[in-house]
Design brief:
There is one protein chain. By secondary structure, this protein is of the alpha/beta class. The protein has helices at 2-5, 41-53, 76-89, 116-121, 144-157, and strands at 31-37, 63-67, 106-110, 130-135, 168-170, 180-181, 184-185, 213-215. It has one domain (28-178, 208-215): Spore Coat Polysaccharide Biosynthesis Protein SpsA, Chain A (Alpha-Beta Complex), CATH 3.90.550. It has five helices and eight strands, in the order H-E-H-E-H-E-H-E-H-E-E-E-E. Strands 3-2-1-4-8-5 form a six-stranded mixed sheet. A two-stranded antiparallel sheet has the order 6-7. Strand 1 (31-37), helix 2 and strand 2 form a beta-alpha-beta unit.
Length: 217
């Protein structure tokens, strides 16, 4: 994150990607889960339940939960739904948390002011773990951690497979494909390149919105 934040709206310093610099490649990968939430209690509970039931192979996994605060323009209903989240998750002062995390350290942060989704995504941190950032409108597979850890070991920790242009791994379905638009396929590569006529793209750079996944910050 320090590298990305230092670009000052310019990508010049990232032209060649992140150089490979892992002095202790024998150390195990540590994955820190970061959940971004605001005022959707039911969907948050669904996500937390799926995280709690996942297989972590006896690893200790830290869970950070970031709770945004209503803006000055929020209406009464929006504020009441936010209060429901606070009553369940706790605020470290007036409400204790009803949620229990049994797989490692738990940290709950309630922002002092409204920061928005972008503000939550770009929250600074001072740890060296690989971060898995999840918005609260999804749920994870029971096997997500096993896949993610193996993928990080293969693509990020293994120097022979390392690609300096790779900043993270998305856990979303590959619903956006080069040469296609939703409901309107566009032929961009000759059919002869693939027997099915549908080329499979791998590790390609694609401009899009922030998505749930692990980031090498």
């Amino acid at each position: 994150w320090d590298l990305l934040a230092s670009t000052d709206s310019s990508c010049d310093s990232l032209e060649n990607g992140i150089p490979y610099s892992l002095p202790d490649r024998t150390a195990p990968v540590r994955i820190r889960i970061r959940v971004l939430t605001y005022n959707r209690l039911k969907s948050l509970q669904r996500l937390l339940k799926s995280l709690q039931l996942a297989n972590y192979s006896s690893d200790s996994v830290a869970l950070d939960i970031s709770i945004d605060r209503p803006s000055s323009k929020a209406d009464v209903d929006e504020k009441n739904r936010w209060k429901q989240v606070i009553e369940y998750m706790g605020d470290g002062a007036h409400h204790s948390s009803k949620f229990r995390w049994s797989h490692g350290p738990l940290s709950i942060t309630v922002h002092k002011k409204h920061v928005g989704l972008f503000g939550q995504w770009t929250l600074a941190n001072n740890h060296q773990d690989v971060q898995l950032v999840l918005e609260d409108d999804i749920e994870v597979s029971p096997h997500f951690y096993i896949f993610l850890k193996q993928a990080i070991n293969f693509y990020y920790m293994n120097q022979s497979n390392y690609d300096s242009r790779m900043f993270g791994l998305s856990l979303q379905h590959q619903h956006t494909v080069l040469g296609q638009r939703t409901g309107f396929p566009m032929r961009s590569i000759d059919k002869e390149l693939n027997e099915t006529g549908a080329p499979v793209f791998f590790k390609y750079q694609l401009l899009g919105k922030l998505c749930d996944g692990a980031f090498f910050w």
